[in-house]
Amino acid sequence: MHPQPPIPDAWRPHPPQDAPGVAPVRLTAGLAALVLAAACTMQAAPGAGPSAAPGPSAATSDAGLLGPTNAFRAGLGLAPLSRDATLDAAASAHARDMAANGFMDHRGSDGSTLGTRARKPGCTWTGLAENIARGQSTPEAALSAWTGSPGHRRNLAGPYERMGQARAGDVWVAVYGMACRQFGTVDAAAPVG
Hints:
Largest sheet: 4 strands, mixed
Low-confidence stretches: 1-58
Shape: globular
Number of strands: 7
Strand content: 15-25%
Number of helices: 6
């Protein structure tokens, strides 16, 4: 078996541009083509039946991604993620935006980044990541698309503790977060029941 070649930095999942100590990622024409190609190849498998999905103007934060994500992480010996209301809201806003406006990008139609969507008053996340997909009919199919992509797989297996999730139509968004720091202490969390 041959080792996979290293992934060029330009192809890595986008960190928020406004995160301290993280250099902004510029969307180049080549990267835009890659994102478009990835979106096209992440379609649901032929014959996959339709499922009830919220329309483009509505999003559900009960997208069903947490269970399959935690099962994937357990297979790697990693701790499970817990849901977070702030990250759910960030995922939901971005899923609605992409579904309603017909695009796939980590930057919102209003120019927002993951860092701006996941803001929590008085809080600084110590790490954030986002996976997006379009065309899958089930949470398992979205997860399967992500596990087949080195960058998305890295996010799934990252050192995150919390997760937000949303689905709008056939658009899926998962947001992963590391501890929220408030005034030098770790925030107790904003879990979802």
